[in-house]
Design brief:
The protein folds into three domains: about 1-50, Arc Repressor Mutant, subunit A; about 55-175, no CATH class; about 175-275, Endonuclease, Chain A (3-Layer(aba) Sandwich), CATH 3.40.960. Helix content is about 45%, strand content about 15%. It has helices at about 5-10, 15-20, 25-35, 55-60, 70-75, 120-130, 135-145, 150-160, 165-170, 180-190, 230-245, 255-260, 260-275; strands at about 15, 40-45, 45-50, 65, 90, 105-110, 115-120, 195-200, 205-210, 215-220, 250-255. The strands form three sheets. The protein has a four-stranded mixed sheet, sandwiched between helices. A four-stranded mixed sheet has the order 8-9-10-11, sandwiched between helices. Strands 1-3-2 form a three-stranded antiparallel sheet, with helices on both faces. Helix 6 (about 120-130) runs antiparallel to helix 7. About 35% of the residues are buried.
């Protein structure tokens, strides 16, 4: 006989009680596990492990799966912080919402049958397109692709679900963007008409994020990286090696790309003018 908590671990931390009972646990055993605090009763017929992500629990209390930006983060996808922190719930095409205390949920009805837990990444991206701005969606889409969380079938499904006005972004997207900041910078410069070569190997320097023209290197440092003295030293050595080969290197961090974009554009434009001379 399997213990209800053991089964919930195998089910992703949350499940309907009927599914638990399919594996030999009686209703009384499920109730005893809940009374003992080993599992939590989310609503009638739904149970979760005590340490499960509270956003997933709230979505299940509402009647569906957690989706949109919060779910993408839980999948490990890079997503910009958004001002709206409401819980987004996928109820499938015709799911039923359940009242619960403090409900401020945003509901997504779309094709498919929603389960409990996290919505699939492809569905999260489809829903996110409707809720977050285009830049944030583009960065999340490239991040999911880079992490191999969406395959060719998923990308085709996303393309079919999004309006035709979004196709240019999907065409621009690449699987080799190693951070959301790279995605943001490339998208914004594309809109300015500045062409980038991505993930370029330069002999004597190594792989750099971007090369513009023939002599300008752009590197984007995420806020979680490049913090240590040793990493800073390696970056300086790379920049010196690039300079010896005739390259100029510009480095931008999270705060600059997200909050000080005009300064980034001005620096790149002036560097391109210098290179043209």
């Amino acid at each position: 006989m399997f213990d209800p908590a053991y089964l919930l671990e195998r089910f992703g931390g949350i499940s309907h009680g009927s599914r638990i009972q399919q594996y030999g646990c009686s209703r009384s055993e499920v109730r005893r596990a809940a009374d003992a605090g080993r599992i939590n009763r989310v609503r009638q017929g739904v149970y979760a492990l005590p340490d499960l992500d509270p956003d997933i629990v709230t979505a299940a209390a509402h009647g569906g799966a957690l989706t949109c930006a919060s779910a993408l983060r839980a999948w490990g996808v890079w997503v910009l912080p958004e001002p709206d922190r409401s819980i987004h719930v996928w109820l499938g095409k015709a799911g039923r919402a359940h009242a619960h205390p403090g409900c401020a949920c945003s509901v997504h009805f779309s094709v498919g049958r929603s389960a409990l837990g996290l919505a699939p990444v492809a569905d999260c991206l489809i829903h996110a397109y409707r809720c977050i701005d285009g830049e944030a969606f583009f960065a999340a889409y490239e991040s999911a692709w880079n992490k191999r969380l969406i395959g060719a079938h998923d990308r085709a499904r996303i393309r079919a679900a999004l309006p035709r006005s979004a196709e240019w972004m999907l065409d621009l997207a690449r699987p080799d963007a190693e951070s959301g900041l790279e995605s943001l910078l490339r998208l914004r410069l594309h809109l300015l008409g500045i062409r980038l070569d991505c993930q370029v190997d330069i002999a004597g320097v190594g792989r750099v994020d971007f090369v513009v023209g023939r002599r300008l290197i752009l590197e984007v440092d995420g806020r979680e990286n490049h913090a240590g003295v040793d990493r800073r030293h390696r970056d300086l050595v790379r920049d010196a090696a690039a300079s010896a080969l005739g390259f100029e290197t510009l480095r931008f961090d999270y705060a600059m790309v997200v909050h000080e974009w005009p300064s980034v554009v001005a620096a790149i434009e002036q560097a391109l003018l210098r290179a043209a001379r």
